[in-house]
Amino acid sequence: MASPVPAVGGVLEEARRLYRQTFGSCPQVEVCAPGRVNLIGEHTDYNDGFVLPMALALVTVVVGSPDPGRAVTIVTANQDVEEPRRVEFNLPSDGSPLSPGKPGWANYVKGVVQHYRAPPVPGFKAVIASSVPLGGGLSSSASLEVAVYTFLQQLQPDDGDAVAKAVACQQAEHTHAGVPCGIMDQLVSVLGQEAHALLIDCRSMEATPIPLSDPSVVILITNSNVKHSLTGSEYPARRKQCMEAASVLGRQSLRDATLEDLEDARSRMDEVTYRRARHVILEIQRTVRGSEFLKKGFYEEFGKLMVESHDSLRDLYEVSCGELDQLVSAALEVDGVFGSRMTGGGFGGCTVTLLQAHAVDKAILHMQMLNLNSTESNSNNGSVHDPVSLNVGGELYATTLDTL
Ligand code: GAF
Prior knowledge:
Blueprint: H1 8-23, E1 29-40, E2 50-66, E3 71-76, E4 86-90, H2 105-115, E5 124-130, H3 140-155, H4 162-177, H5 184-191, E6 196-201, E7 206-211, E8 217-223, H6 234-249, H7 259-265, H8 271-296, H9 299-315, H10 322-332, E9 337-343, E10 350-356, H11 360-368, E11 385-391
Parallel strand pairs: 3-5
Antiparallel strand pairs: 1-2, 2-5, 2-6, 3-4, 6-7, 8-10, 8-11, 9-10
Helix pairs in contact: 2-3, 2-4, 3-4, 3-5, 4-5, 6-8, 8-9, 10-11
Bound molecules: 2-deoxy-2-fluoro-alpha-D-galactopyranose (GAF).
The site of 2-deoxy-2-fluoro-alpha-D-galactopyranose (GAF) has 11 residues, from helix 5.
């Protein structure tokens, strides 16, 4: 019942076809970078905390060739983006910045060109295609940034430092997409490994692979179809509230605070700031404990933490929405489900559910019966579709494909 994860080959073929049609030749360079699902550790990355994402076999592909001179031509195969789908610009010869503009999708490319660590970037022509759903909370933006960066590395190599690459892509998102995101999405897109989740310490940037090799357990991703956009005011507002809380606590970041510190300082902060900080402090603890449970195959225990995480994101951090809450509740009614939660920034997007392999079809049916009736203005009418099931350790697993 679950759609198979689309093969990278399909997206690659689409990109090659469009490249041949547009430029009349075959691309010389072909790269891709994965989207991600976060298993636990939400809104902790910009608080120097821990996250536990895994790279997906949903990828963004960039195919292209160097072009003599300083002209860049990019074409996207994605039909859902703002028009035009072909953009041309010149790389400034004096090192002046490449300003973001319209259409919005091209800003990710411009941002990465701007922050590329081995300038000057040569001219190029390229086509972009992706199987990561846009605005679905599975890091379509980070996978595009990392794919573009990887493409540039093929044209003009940098020093190959993986963490610096992720940071450059994060910078691109800050300056050219206007989203003050943390480092999780870019780092897992660069470092994710097949059949592993990645425990990332967002302070030291140390990433520890956690093997997922139990064929009886599945990770199911379900799209609420409520499109989220992190460029609104809510994400930056959460970030600001966390900084305020850390400053009241006299800490560099909420990573350094305990629940006791928070209770002691409660009278010195407003109720909303208190709730935001409480989510972050406990979510960091859940992520560290959760990674231990996952390592040992303690799925029941991990599932409970997923549910606590969701409840906290809904009640304390207030980044969930009705559709996500309903999907999670529906999943938890099914026998064989260990846990379920919203994943990613929130305000729409996907849920992630950990369950026994035999329960997958039942869980999907149960969630589809919701026939969500969305009231969100940015919603796509909210019906559940495109569930993606990832057999942990099976054939459909998290995978990273850096360079084809
Ligand atoms: C988005 C951001 F891009 C990440 O950095 C992270 O903060 C996430 O929301 C929430 O955990 O995906």
